[in-house]
Amino acid sequence: MNSGKSIARVLAEELCALEFDNLPGPIVEFSRVAFLDWIGAALAGSHEDSINILLQAVPQTGASGEATILPVANKGLALFAALVNGAASHATEMDDFHKTSMVHLGVTVIPAVLALAEKVRATGKEFITSLIAGFEAGIRVGEAVNPSHWEFWHPSGTCGTFAALAGCGRLLRLTPQEMAFGFGLAGTQAAGFRFYEGMNKHLHPGKAAMNGLLAALLAQKGFTGDEQIFEGETGFCKAMARDWNLEKLTAALPLIPGNFRCLGNSFKPHASCRHTHPAIDAVLKIVKANPLRPEEVESIRCRTYSAATRLLKDPTVRDAFSAKFSLPFCIALAVKEKKVGLDSFSPSLLWNKEVRQLVERISVEVDPTMENVYPEKWPAEIEIVTKQGRRLRERVDHPKGDPENPMSLTEMVEKYQDLASKAADDFSAKLILDRVMNLEKLLDMSTIFDGFLNKGGKDARF
Fold it and tell me: Which CATH number covers residue 378?
């Protein structure tokens, strides 16, 4: 870090200097894919109970509004659009994830930057540049305080607030001093306990997006914040992590080719907590190579790292949300259904007798060797013992969707089409897809959802 400058100021100077013409081709391509994936997740989450309740508290203004509120195919104030869209995109557990920062970056950065881009009628190039700024900032903040921060806090709600501020600050063309103050304003709003009962987890990224956008708007108007927010004695890092590394906040700078960290982002093929995915992938490898009926299974042993066992080993399933955070239940679903998709958590499967009986035959334990490689790897090993005595074993170190085991562009488009179908008709979904795939050519981000808005979505509620 440059002597005499706060960490927030050093980071701000790099983010403010970022320009579209300096973004490598793979980074631009990443921004399109990340945006498409986020839109699909937001549309899929439109009809979740938590979002229906949230919408009752949020005013909508129709065509004269500042930004699109996707779940109602309507427009409202940008701050409220960021809130609702952020929550909706996290509601089905189909959103992206960055494994070493432990932040769901898309659901915090994109709803904030998108709402602002619609409000100020930014170009697609400006939107892309700002999206990347948010991702890059969020990754560095998350890596500086995790994994210990995650022990009590939900990083998407906390670190995600800084990420949203960074993206919005870049879009507003804040000065480095304003951006540094913005980091202080974001930090004082950063919140979200890793306490996932009820619907509060869905609120975290929406509030991070809304609060980050608010911090940027305030900083633009001259509202000051404490730019020692990261290194201060009562600042974010010391207050909210048992262990932290301030150097990671300014690592891999300047933002030039080779230093962009967003390509380490992961995308999710399964509709459950990312920590369940290595085990799900291992099960799918087994059952696709060895046709197996649930009644043939004597026992299933899952060995993995401790973070997954602490969060996911509880077999108790009360509803779809708890099912997505139960590793035994997700393993049982993968055995029976050969997939773990959105429809896998329907009431008929939640209370399916075969699934419930399988759960009782599953054990989960920590493997010290796997613990040693986490979070660079997220390993899991599954051993299925059949009633005939066969032992079927598979290990996965990088779940599908990680950069080391990526989803193809075709797979990402298919995922988007499946998710978007929950709220948009085929014509509208195709319009959005075409615009996102040519995002850098778009002259006005307020037109990104034209057609979808005109049709009122697939099931309008206004």
Answer: 3.30.1330.120
